[in-house]
Predict the 3D structure of the following.
Amino acid sequence: MSKSTSEEMASKDTTIFKSNFLCVFSILLFATGFPAAEYLLKDWDVVSVITARSVFSFILIFFIWVVIEGIRAVRAAKWIKGFWIGATGFGIGSFFILILQSLTSPVIAALAVATMPLAAVSLEMFLDGRKMTRWFFFGVVLVLLGGFVASGATFENDGMGFAALIGITGVALFAWSSRATVKNLPGMTTLGQTAVTTSGMAGSTIILYFICSIFLDITETASPITLEHLGLVLIYGWLGLGISQIFWIKSVSKLGIGVASFHLNAAPFYVMLILFILGDSWVWSQAIGAVIVITGVILAQQKSTNKKAEFFELP
C-alpha cells in the first residue's frame, strides 16, 4: 500500500469519526427536548408547545446563519423549496411525534424516533436503489419488538396502537425531510439548508396554531406563561431542535440518512438518564425495551460493513 493511499484512508477514517461524533452530539441534544416538552405539556397544549419550539428554533438558526455567512447567502437561498420540505417533513412530522408523546411518555416518543432506520433505509431502497439484506431485516424485527416491550402495550390497547401509528408516520416524514434537505438543496451550506427548512417547520406550525385557535379552541394554556416556561421552551427549541438540527443535517450530508439514523438508537437511553437525574423512577420495562431496540439497530449497522450489504453506504 502506497503512502498516499494510507494517508487517504486515514483521512477518510478521521472524517467518518468526526461525522459520527457530530451525529452522537446531535442526538444527545435532541434527547434533552423530550423531558422539557414533558414539563411544558403539563401546562400547555400540544399545538402551543410545537409552535413555540419551531419559532424559537428558526430564530436561533437564522441568527447564526446571518452572522456566519452574511445577508448575501440569505438572499441567494432556495427559500420556496426549503420551506416546502420543512413544512411537510419537519413541521408535520415533529407535530405527530409530539402528539405521540402527549398520549404516552417521552421515553416512548424517543423509542418511536429510534425506529427511523426503517424509514430511512426504505427511502434509500426506493429512491437510491439500495438493496435489502437479511441482517437489516433481523434488526428491524428487534427494533419493533423493543418498542412494544418498552411501551407496555397490548393488542387490546387501541389507544396505544393509534398513538404508535401517529408516531411512526411522524418519524417517516422526518426521515424524508432529512434526506430531502441534503439531496434537494444542492449548492447551499449546512446552515443554509437547515435555516430554510426550519422556516418551513415554523411556518407550518404557526398556520396550525391559528387554525386550532379559530376553529378548534384547543390552544388555551392552563396557566400563565412564566420564566420557567420560557426556559423550557429555550431548552426544547434551541438545544433539542435548533443546534441539534444543524449537527443532524451536517451528519446526514456526510454519512447518509441510513447510517445517521442508526445513532437515534441512543435517544431512549439519553431520555431515561435525564429523567432519572431529574428525580423520576427507573422503569425496567422501558430500559429493557431500549436495549432491545439498540441491539437491533446495532446489528443492522454492523452487518452493513459486509461487502454484500452496501446499501448503507453513500454512492
Q: What stands out?
A: Residues 30-129+157-262 form one domain. The two ends are 24 Å apart (CA to CA). The mean pLDDT is 77.
